[in-house]
Amino acid sequence: MADRAALSDVAEKLAAGTGPVAVDAERASGFRYSQRAYLVQLRRAGAGTALVDPIPLGSDLHELAPAFVGVEWVLHAASQDLPCLAEVGLAPESLFDTELAGRLAGLPRVGLGPLVEQLLGLSLEKGHGAADWSRRPLPDDWLVYAALDVEVLVELRDVLADLLAEQGKLEWAHQEFEAVRTAGSPAP
Description:
Layout: H1 4-16, E1 18-26, E2 39-45, E3 48-52, E4 72-75, H2 78-87, E5 94-97, H3 98-104, H4 112-120, H5 140-151, H6 153-166, H7 170-182
Parallel strand pairs: 1-4, 4-5
Antiparallel strand pairs: 1-2, 2-3
């Protein structure tokens, strides 16, 4: 999706969805000096998955922001993606970081692939994470890879939240997620 009309359609679908929204961003940090988002992936129950190319949109996705009012974002390694998402006009009001949750739960391997395999019994195809996402057009197999990263994030969040609750660490985890969410934000 790379035009304003399609972006408005995605915003409407996401607003009509339910529950948390899974969010991911692909950068080209090994190829470019910036941490710019070259692809933003979104998934929400009832809305499906959307792949948004911010480049032809002038790196401005602010039209999506109203769809996320009061909605928890689920990210993996949020501290890596939040700065580039803020650059395109997106910032969460509430956050659940699956990587940080895995660390707080004491899991030995907290990469997305290992967590999904260990907790959900699924195997993610990894391999394009270090690709040059600034390249256009993006190859179809890269787009499939990118979409799969958000497909299981909410389910992974639910399992991790249950695990943290069993360990008596869920409130602590929410405090840590809030610290990540507000890191670098100006003081009120």
